[in-house]
Amino acid sequence: MSKPTAFANKVYKLTKQIPKGKISTYKAIAEPLNTKAYQAVGQALRNNPYAPIVPCHRVISSNGTMGGFNGKTSGKEIQTKKQLLKKEGISFKGNKVYNPSKVLHIFK
């Protein structure tokens, strides 16, 4: 595995701040980095070498869906991500986080 880029390390630093029982979005992580490269945030998290210390499972899409996990966007990996979030107290309605604004972590 190659060394993380400076951008990826910034993404990991922010993601590490998301507490248990909260979620964030790719967009919400990109904003404090002054970028609209939401997919680049997702790519950095896809290659996260620091999991679970950097809790990438707490990052979802802005529409409340899971986004990706372990490089996959469907199947067993997404169900694993959903189960991890459920264990942390996140509720779901179907395959979307229920009322994501209530559990959204705000970066300061």
Structure description:
- This protein is mainly α.
- It has one domain: Winged helix-like DNA-binding domain superfamily/Winged helix DNA-binding domain (Arc Repressor Mutant, subunit A), CATH 1.10.10.
- The protein contains 5 helices and 4 strands, in the order αβααβαββα.
- It has helices at residues 6-15, 26-30, 38-46, 76-87, 100-103; strands at 24-25, 59-60, 92-93, 96-97.
- The strands form 2 sheets. It has a two-stranded parallel sheet with strand order 1-2. A two-stranded antiparallel ribbon has the order 3-4.
- Helix 1 crosses helix 3 (38-46).
- The longest helix is centred in the C-terminal third of the chain and has 12 residues, at 76-87.
- The radius of gyration is 13 Å and the shape is globular.
- The relative contact order is 0.20.
Radius of gyration: 13 Å
pLDDT averaged residue by residue:
94
| Name of the CATH superfamily | Winged helix-like DNA-binding domain superfamily/Winged helix DNA-binding domain
> What is the beta-strand fraction?
5-15%
Order of helices and strands: HEHHEHEEH
Estimated helix fraction: 25-40%
